[in-house]
Amino acid sequence: MELTRREFIRQMLALGFSAATAGAVFSLLACSTEDITRPEPVLEPVLEPEPEPEPVLEPELEPVLEPEPVPEPEPEPEPVPEPEPVSPASPGDTHLVVVRGESPTALVQTALRALGGIERFVKSGNDVIIKPNICSAYHSYEYAATTNPEVVAALVQLCLGAGAKRVRVMDNSFAGTALIAYTRSGIAEAVQQAGGEMELMLRMKFRETEIPEGRDIKKWRVYNDVLDADVLINVPIAKHHSLARLTLGMKNLLGVIVERNKIHINLSQRIADLNSLVRPTLTLVDAVRILMRHGPTSGNLNDVKLANTVIASHDIVAADAYAATLFGLTGADIPAIRAGAQMGLGTMDLGSVKVEEISL
């Protein structure tokens, strides 16, 4: 209970204090009591501030890229037509080239250019066989019993230049061994320097083969690789022959068979029969030096005539018919040429042939 000033002083007076002292004490106590009894202020509870909401982030969007314009496809170049495949004989459309000059290499190169290029006959990757006449191991090429080595080497180089996978040169010699004939003729060295291969024709590679169009012979043992090659180039030398009158392109193919002594029975028809099976892609007759007499081997330089000529065509019959004129003969004068024409293997009528003659 709170004391009034008056009551406090009365009690102090009863205790013996003076009125002045009692008043002073009361005043002092009043101040002190006021401080002591002052009620504590009621404090508002301190509220934790509400956490500010995390900002809602807009999802990051991948930038939308404008699609790059699709270039319009370039127009495909017009395909370059490949030369028409050359069939061995196309009567009515035969092209025959005759080139005259002093360089055998230039003769071959010019003849092939005139025919449309070696690429008409040889494609990249082709397996090529070149069949010259290397029948004799007795004489060098100057005696005109064997094909001129420079002519063969020029063909090897052209074929390799056209992308041929390999170029092999071969013949089945009858006078002496093939190995000696290859060397003595000068062909082995020329071919190797040109990048080609000389191949000895092994007996085991001759196989009996049907000749469906044959009139006299219906089968014979023929060199396997010659039949399987992509390209066969026939390179005979033009020369006299005691039985056939002339050895040219058709007769040169007797070098791809065995038992040639038996083929000499009814020789002309059998040559034509063989040619119905073995079809060269190209025939190039070497008439740089020609053997006028005592063929097929002679051995006398007086029998040789320098003609400085090559004859080239995909038609073996036409090539042989033209080559016969170098001896003062016609195709009709040679029984094998007549037989080949009768079987439709080519044409011996040079009036129906496009003959292109070039002098270097």
How is this structure best described in words?
- With 360 residues, this protein is of the alpha/beta class.
- It is 31% helix and 19% strand.
- The protein is built from twelve helices and twelve strands.
- It has helices spanning 5-14, 19-37, 104-114, 149-161, 178-184, 187-194, 224-228, 249-252, 260-263, 267-277, 316-325, 335-342; strands at residues 95-100, 127-132, 166-169, 197-198, 206-210, 219-223, 231-235, 237-241, 245-247, 282-291, 304-313, 354-359.
- Strands 1, 2, 3, 4, 7, 8, 9, 10, 11 and 12 form a ten-stranded mixed β-sheet that branches.
- A hairpin with an 8-residue loop joins strand 5 (206-210) and strand 6 (219-223).
- Helix 3 (104-114) packs across helix 4 (149-161) and helix 10 packs across helix 12 (335-342).
- The radius of gyration is 56 Å and the shape is rod-shaped.
Keywords:
12 helices, alpha/beta, rod-shaped, two-stranded antiparallel sheet, 10-stranded mixed β-sheet, 360 residues, 12 strands
Quick recap of the structure?
The protein is of the alpha/beta class and about 350 residues long. It contains twelve helices and twelve strands.
Q: State the separation between the terminal residues, measured CA to CA.
A: 156 Å
Task: Count helical runs.
Answer: 12
How many strands?
A: 12
Which structural category fits the helices and strands?
Answer: alpha/beta
Shape estimate: rod-shaped
Radius of gyration: 56 Å
Low-confidence stretches: 31-47, 55-65
Topology:
Layout (H helix, E strand, L loop, with lengths): L4 H10 L4 H19 L57 E6 L3 H11 L12 E6 L16 H13 L4 E4 L8 H7 L2 H8 L2 E2 L7 E5 L8 E5 H5 L2 E5 L1 E5 L3 E3 L1 H4 L7 H4 L3 H11 L4 E10 L12 E10 L2 H10 L9 H8 L11 E6 L1
Parallel strand pairs: 1-12, 2-3, 2-7, 3-4, 7-10, 8-10
Antiparallel strand pairs: 1-11, 5-6, 8-9, 10-11
